[in-house]
Amino acid sequence: MSTAELHTLTGAYALHALPEDERLAFERHLGACEACTQEVRELSATAARLGLAVSVVAPPAMRERVLREITTVRQEAPSHGRSGRSGAPAGRAGRWSTYALAACVAAAAAFGGVAVWQNQVARNAQEEAAQARQQNEQLARVLAAPDARTSSGALEGGARAAVVVSPSVNRAVFLASDMDRPPGGKVYQLWFNDDGSMRSAGLMDPSATDDTVLLDGPVDGASGMGITVEPAGGSKQPTTPPVALMDFPKA
Prior knowledge:
The chain has 251 residues and is an alpha+beta fold.
């Protein structure tokens, strides 16, 4: 197995999904690859925290089905200094993104102004990628922090939720599973509870019943959080009674 292929096994290793021979080969690789070691550490911590929001036992066939599915999708190699590695295989999503971009460039060429359009697309893509990367790094820092504490509980309709707080990072992560989707044109908005005063902490994905959200802003002195149903785009202050209130875990 090549070094480039070993770089793609961090996710499967973190989930204990590698066969014995690949596991041994990857563990030898970890001894010489700090980037993969760091990524395995973050993925393992994230998987452990996400498991706190799960309230049902997975069906017996789940593991087999997941392992069968992941054989058809190549994981992207970690970005820690390896984005320019020659010979690294491109993922399927990367190839399709390249084809889609090429098609858009060809269409724009028919109308002129390709250089300006392409530069704008590149800038937008870079900005979005940087924001997503920063968000994921912050989320991983909270979940993997040595002082991270977790509080979990049940929500209406059988949903489960957990909140992870790290005083050292001064951020919190909310995890939910099996939540009912909000009514049309509405969204779940998260709030910090500052001694009864609610401070906006971001929005959940209205199309997802399972979600992991890095709360927007520092925890500071907040003692807990709440969830309300708000108009799409959110509100400056809660406009409906909370559908859930959770205390932050004690240090």
